[in-house]
Amino acid sequence: MRETRDTFHLAIPARDLDEAFTFYVTGLGCKLARRYDDRITLDFFGDQVVCHLSDKIDHDVHMYPRHFGITFRERADFDRLHALAKSRDLEFFAEVGDRFAGRVEEHLTFVLKDPSNNLLEFKYYHDPRMMY
């Protein structure tokens, strides 16, 4: 069973590592853990994202089935990241929206698109029981 000290990791394609660095480190504020000729490893909000240099980039991007991101426990953290993304002119795939309005699983969400067309969704559930 995973414990809080364990880290989830995800590998994604990147057409250019300098672009990935600029988006994730300079833009989102993630920490660079390692850099090699073919990848960068990031501390992505406490978990590990590895951007692998690749020419297999999705050109016709759709939200489903492939995206990843963070679900925030605190609304203030969601709002701060949204404001940061706006102030740093990160590319939005979808602005803040309310999903499942009026239902217990109602949540706010916005989606960013990185330079390699990977989609990142950020969420905040009004009812914290709905995080999982």
Layout: helices, strands, pairs:
Layout: E1 9-14, H1 17-27, E2 31-36, E3 39-44, E4 47-53, E5 68-72, H2 75-87, E6 92-99, E7 107-113, E8 119-125
Could you describe the 3D structure shown?
- The strands form two sheets. Strands 1-4-3-2 form a four-stranded mixed beta sheet, with helices on one face. A four-stranded mixed beta sheet has the order 5-8-7-6, covered by helices on one side.
- It contains two helices and eight strands; from the N terminus they run βαββββαβββ.
- By secondary structure, it is of the alpha/beta class.
- A hairpin with a 5-residue loop joins β7 (107-113) and β8 (119-125).
- It has a single domain (9-131), classed as Roll (2,3-Dihydroxybiphenyl 1,2-Dioxygenase, domain 1).
- It has helices at 17-27, 75-87, and strands at 9-14, 31-36, 39-44, 47-53, 68-72, 92-99, 107-113, 119-125.
- InterPro entries: Glyas_Bleomycin-R_OHBP_Dase, Glyas_Fos-R_dOase_dom, VOC_core.
- This is Glyoxalase.
- Residues 6-125 form the VOC domain.
